[in-house]
Specification:
Length: about 160
């Protein structure tokens, strides 16, 4: 029941590229997320692969998900895993202590992104996501229902987006 109600709420508050006023996010949405290229049938994996391709990321960290890691290797054989600092971190869940640990260890640079899988899997994951995006270090957050993206771009004004993909 939680997933059905949360999806309805998501649809009601979400927008497409027309509701985005950040040039960085607008370009990401229109040129990456909404591109015709389909790299996988699952939206969360497709988002991961398209994001790596769009930004040309070279250093990726995928926590606890060997299936996703293998798919990344197949599509991008030159990707380096777990080199610091990383361009993209893909995690199944993220909470404030986990983010603060990653941030304090110097694993992120200004243009690093964190892609959080399954933010609507259950109420606990959604609560973690909602608390996480309130942190002052996180300047951009994009809720895409199947996954969420956070960024620490210092030059970016703090904004949250809810985007249908």
């Amino acid at each position: 029941m939680f997933k059905i109600l949360s999806y309805i709420k998501f649809i009601l508050k979400s927008t497409n590229q027309h509701g985005v006023h950040s040039p960085f996010v607008f370009q990401y949405v229109t040129q990456c997320l909404y591109s015709k290229k389909k790299l996988h049938y699952k939206k969360n994996i497709n988002t991961l692969l398209k994001t790596i391709d769009y930004f040309g990321f070279e250093k990726v960290s995928i926590k606890k998900n060997t299936e996703f890691k293998e798919l990344v290797k197949q599509n991008f054989p030159n990707i380096q895993f777990n080199e610091n600092p990383v361009d993209l971190i893909f995690v199944d869940e993220m909470d404030i202590p986990s983010f603060q640990k990653i941030h304090s260890e110097g694993k992120l640079h200004n243009n690093s992104l964190i892609l959080v899988n399954s933010i609507y899997d259950n109420k606990e994951n959604l609560d973690k996501w909602n608390r996480l995006i309130l942190l002052p270090e996180i300047t951009v957050s994009i809720d895409m229902y199947h996954c969420g993206l956070i960024s620490i771009r210092r030059e970016q004004v703090k904004e949250h987006f809810t985007i249908r993909i």
